[in-house]
Amino acid sequence: MLSVTFLGTSAARPTVERNVSGLALEREGETLLFECGEGTQRQMMRYGVSFALSEIFFTHFHADHFLGVIGLVRTLGLQDRQEPLRLYGPRGAKKVLMQAISLGVERVPFPVEIEEIGPGAVIRREPSSTTHHAPRTSQEYEIRVFATEHGGGSVGYALREHDRRGRFDVEKARELGIPEGPLWGKLHKGETITLEDGRHLTPDTLVGPPRPGRLVVITGDTRPCASVVDAAQGADLLVHEATFGEEEKERAKETGHSTAREAAQVALAAKARRLVLSHVSARYSMSADELVKEAKEVFGETMVARDGTVIEVPFVEKGVRGA
């Protein structure tokens, strides 16, 4: 299971309909939080996102993207949390986040680790690693950090799962007289087996080619740029900001944001499978139909998220990613 829950989809300030930036990615029982604007902890309660998370990722440090970490850390402390919480962000993260989480609290009662990361950094999830609250799975992944264009060293994040094993041909295994059980498992793991009659069978006889894992890309605030296109190549889900419509294209340039059409052009260039727009201006708080229309003229598989929108990201079983 891999899903994305939008906790806040408004740009700059909250509205009655939309909170400021926050997004929870849930995968195989693990919860990762991207951005933590004011009010995020209440949005987590409202939309059923677990507080049993270990990591928060920040794209930059404008107030609407990180102020909520103050209340969230305070609440986690009142819940007697003991496990460490790790915070990731671009240059300046240690200073900004340490000041934030110390507000109104004499001492945070659990370890908070802050790591400054930049474009090109890779946060790996290998079989030997351990993540608090997260069950160990055979499907590992990594989070790649890429540059965005919003000033101050802003970054985006791309979660890419490792390739999965190929499909095991059950019918052929039976035809070849391979007894069901451990021998099937060995073949699927890539091991050669020997049957009682002396036959040696290699995995390629029964196991198909590796199947691609999923790729989810979260841009944060940004102008459309080549680094986002590169990071999102063949993405199963691209979450891209769309603060403005085309009538405010110049304002988008001045403020380091994108229009819906520009976000769609990024998705098209990246050959993404699906585009979800977020971080919309307050003028589109009630209805973002205008943004959807503009984007769909360029990239059909587009929608604008609302607070509480949940997007399931399925495996791609056929075809080649990006084809």
What are the key terms here?
alpha/beta; disordered C terminus; globular; 16 strands; seven-stranded mixed sheet; single chain; about 325 residues
Describe this structure in words.
The chain has helices spanning 40-46, 63-66, 68-78, 93-102, 170-175, 182-188, 226-231, 249-255, 260-270, 289-296, and strands at 2-8, 22-27, 30-36, 55-57, 85-89, 112-116, 122-125, 141-147, 155-161, 193-194, 200-201, 215-218, 237-241, 275-278, 302-304, 310-312. With 323 residues, it is α/β, with parallel strands linked by helices. Helix 3 (68-78) crosses helix 4 (93-102) and helix 9 (260-270) runs parallel beside helix 10 (289-296). It is globular, with a radius of gyration of 22 Å. The model is unreliable at 128-138 and 319-323 (pLDDT under 50).
Quick recap:
The chain has 323 residues and is α/β, with parallel strands linked by helices.
How is the topology of this model organized?
Blueprint: E1 2-8, E2 22-27, E3 30-36, H1 40-46, E4 55-57, H2 63-66, H3 68-78, E5 85-89, H4 93-102, E6 112-116, E7 122-125, E8 141-147, E9 155-161, H5 170-175, H6 182-188, E10 193-194, E11 200-201, E12 215-218, H7 226-231, E13 237-241, H8 249-255, H9 260-270, E14 275-278, H10 289-296, E15 302-304, E16 310-312
Helix pairs in contact: 3-4, 9-10
Indicate the structural class.
alpha/beta
Q: Quick one: how many beta strands?
A: 16
Please report the number of helical segments.
10
- How would a textbook summarize the main sheet? 7 strands, mixed
Strand order of the largest sheet: 6-5-4-3-2-1-16
Helical amount: 10-25%
Order of helices and strands: EEEHEHHEHEEEEHHEEEHEHHEHEE
Cα gyration radius (Å)? 22 Å
Strand content: 15-25%
Shape descriptor:
globular
